[in-house]
Amino acid sequence: MKRVKQRRRGKGKPVYRARSHRFKAEVNYKNYLDSEKSSSERGLIIDFIDDPARNCPLMLVKFKDSVSKLPAPLGLRVGDYIEQGASSKINPGNILPLVNIPEGTNIFNIERIPGDGGKMVRSAGESAKLISKDEKGIIIQLPSRKFKLFNPLCRASIGTIAGGGHKDKPFVKASKRKWAFRAKTGKWPKVRGTAMNPVDHPHGGGKGRGRKSLTVSRGAPPGAKVGSIAPRRTGRRSR
What we know:
By secondary structure, the chain is mostly beta strands. 7% of the residues lie in helices and 22% in strands. Strand 1 (40-49) and strand 2 form a beta hairpin. It starts with a helix and ends in a 10-residue tail after the last strand.
């Protein structure tokens, strides 16, 4: 059986795994009791950290009884305060339920389900916009320009995530780019099947051309399902 890269990746060995032992922290909102939902809690930003798992900086926020790690918004620095709760002000970094955020406000780190800790809009330099509120829920325009309906009790942070200019910094040399990609995916660089040897891939050998047909059936198993999958036709079109 030929060693196709999809099969090797599916076994889950370290070569194709993300380097998760280097990740600094899991980023979630701090849970609060039902009695605290209508009030506001203040937290002090004590440090910023660089996490290989993310392209945005994280901030360490010290609350009264715990320390939380959250995506850092643009414009804050060490020594500033943020607030969490329904009665918080509409300032960068503050965390509020969507129902308490005015229309037209830029937000990030949005919960999909109330209490899940924040799942959406977490990349550097990104922000969503709260468009409107109605009986069905809160309508938000995501960075992809798509509109999505959210539960009014879902929480979000005010502002835009920091680190938006990280793509402007040049890598300078190839090894820097290699480790930047491998830190998150473990799947880079990607090599074409036609550039491999016949023992490594069905498309290998033959001066860059496959030695056998590239067409496979729709029901082919994963790993064998590479190339032209159930095509209607192959070859060049006649003029």
